[in-house]
Amino acid sequence: MSRVEALLLGAPGQPGAIDLLKAGAIVIDTSTIAPRATREMGELLAKKGILMVDAPVSGGSEGAQKGTLTVFLGGTSEAVATALPYIETFAKTITHLGPLGSGQVGKAVNQIVISGTYLSLAEGILVGQKAGLDPQTLVTALSGGSARSWALENRWERMANDTYPLGFKVSLHRKDLGIAIGLADELNVPVPTAMLVAHLEDELIKTGHGDEDLSALARRLRDIANEIDPA
Question: Nearest 5 degrees, angle CA 204-CA 175-CA 83?
Fold first, then answer.
């Protein structure tokens, strides 16, 4: 049983929100869990007259601090209307994607996309450095073309300097990516890039770097490059 399920449905000997909330209350779940689990909990809560929306977020620690997070929202129109005033206090971009569980699907897609973005950025920065280019000058050039992205603008310097202060933990992204890969498997959709990133993240976690920012993918690539060419 996940922590979210224990909180909402209760654990052995402990009541859950479902036992304490009154009909008409709403549960706003901003965690990232499997869409199927969200729908199952929502069905149980609905039997007690309790509304629920799944509202996983994106935007990193910076977005949380500034109140500019992106929210992938799932739920009925009634539940969404009830939840919006609360969500608007910490989010800037809020998109209702469909019925309960749709927010989790949106977040899964987000994690798949950023896994490829971060990995390709790490590859590019490392290739540029190895070839003798100044990273900042290179990023200025890249920012004027189709390679421009949030990751490029906000994470290139960490990759270039090989330092990874907390933004979004590798270990948390790995957890989310596992959910996304599981969903893709259910839908019979191949996600080779996501699976490669998951493998690299597993290696980072094993070597004690799970609490570093996701941009630490560059650390793993550096390690592999050094193993191939120690000089």
Answer: 140
DSSP-based three-state secondary structure for 48? coil
State the catalytic residues: 107
Q: How far from chain centre, in Å, is Cα 172? A: 8
- Amino acid letter, 83: A
231 pLDDT more than 70 = no
pLDDT tens-digit series, residues 110-119: 999 999 999 9
Torsion of CA 159, 212, 64, 62, to 10 degrees: -20
Are 177 and 165 contacting, i.e. CB atoms less than 8 angstroms apart?
no
Closest CA to 123 of 197, 65, 195, 69: 197
pLDDT digits (tens, 9 = 90+) for 101-151: 999 999 999 999 999 999 999 999 999 999 999 999 999 999 999 999 999
Pairing relationship of beta strands 57-58 and 69-74 according to DSSP bridges: antiparallel
What domains can you pick out in the chain, each with its CATH number?
A: 3-100 (3.40.50.720), 105-228 (1.10.1040.10)
